[in-house]
TrEMBL record:
The gene is ilvE. Its cofactor is pyridoxal 5'-phosphate. Signal peptide: none annotated. One of its GO terms (cellular component) is cytosol. One of its GO terms (biological process) is L-valine biosynthetic process. GO terms for molecular function: branched-chain-amino-acid transaminase activity. It comes from Paenalkalicoccus suaedae. This is Branched-chain-amino-acid aminotransferase. Acts on leucine, isoleucine and valine. The lineage of its organism: Bacteria, Bacillati, Bacillota, Bacilli, Bacillales.
């Protein structure tokens, strides 16, 4: 038996016993929502923002989460404590729950909650020093009027298909365009370009998830006196950028130094990217909801 505890519905169970029904519509249809959250030195980074996004995703797909935000916060903190974690990755999943084989969610009696907390395996340092290669892929980002990228749903096939394409092309990450050819995001991260010190990221309505890290970086860059704008751009703008970087809970801030075979800037992570990564790592250890003091219990947003 492992000593990892998973919160499943109403109780903590051991990892080996944390199993759900094959009739769960999360499994059958990808019907559900999720969040990936990070814990730095016992502090949960941007927990309020993650919970807000989870509830908005749920609202959008008419899934009623059977917990309040305050209850969810307590469950997350308890999961971290029970696993005695300090630096961790949290996966929060709310599925439509168990139903019959029909796709109608009406057969599902109650949404199912899963909270997984694991020690974080950090991305290798070399990747941050070297930077990633990106490749634009043929598969377009889901159109917002078909399946909105704003909904962080369990249906990640669009993202998985582009990841497969990136793997086939031998690049580290996919660059996703929308149906009009505008740049949207990576398979699991937001994109920024830097030109003449000005930082640009696509508006989310073009077809990107509103990343928590994205928003944190926009705020941080502005406090560091960079000009940051949300504006549409094409692959050409990426090819001729001085710097390109991606943001996400998993990658934090990471440079992309090659895009569709074009070298970006000097072909190494640029000054703005390095500056933002260093500044980001300072705020993540400082900010956040503490798990191991009573402040964490009271600090409910
Ligand atoms: N876009 C997609 C499609 C993602 O899955 C993620 C990861 N959640 C992101 C962007 C980055 O979002 P965040 O900074 O909230 O992790």
């Amino acid at each position: 038996m492992s000593n990892q505890w998973i919160y499943l519905d109403h109780a903590f169970v051991r990892k080996e016993e944390a199993v759900v029904s094959v009739y769960d519509h999360g499994f059958l249809y990808g019907d559900g929502v999720f969040e990936g959250i990070r814990v730095y030195s016992g502090n949960i980074f941007k927990l309020d923002e993650h919970l807000k996004r989870l509830y908005q995703s749920a609202q959008s797909i008419m899934l009623e989460i059977p917990y309040t935000k305050e209850e969810l916060q307590q469950i997350i903190i308890e999961t971290i404590r029970k696993n005695e974690l300090d630096t961790a990755y949290i996966r929060l999943v709310v599925s439509r729950g168990q139903g019959n084989l029909g796709l109608d969610p009406a057969s599902c009696a109650r949404p199912r909650l899963v909270v997984i907390a694991e020690a974080l395996s950090l991305f290798p340092k070399e990747l941050y020093q070297r930077g990633l290669s990106l490749g634009s892929v043929a598969t377009r980002r889901n159109r917002p009027d078909v399946l909105s990228p704003q909904v962080k749903s369990l249906n990640y096939l669009n993202n998985i298909l582009v990841k497969l394409e990136a793997n086939q092309a031998g690049v580290d990450e996919a660059l996703m365009l929308n149906d009009q050819g505008y740049v949207t995001e990576g398979s699991a991260d937001n994109i920024f370009i830097v030109k003449n010190k000005k930082i640009v990221t696509p508006p989310v309505y073009l077809g990107a998830l509103e990343g928590i890290t994205r928003n944190a970086i926009i705020d941080l860059a502005r406090t560091l006196n960079y000009e940051v704008v949300e504006a549409p751009f094409t692959r050409h703008d990426v090819y001729v950028a001085d710097e390109v970087f991606l943001t996400g809970t998993a990658v934090e801030v990471i440079a992309a130094v090659q895009v569709d075979g074009r070298k970006i800037g000097e072909g190494i992570p640029g000054d703005v990217t390095n500056h933002l990564l260093a500044a980001f790592r300072e705020i993540v250890t400082r900010d956040g909801v503490p798990c191991y003091t009573d402040a964490g219990q009271a600090n409910v947003g």
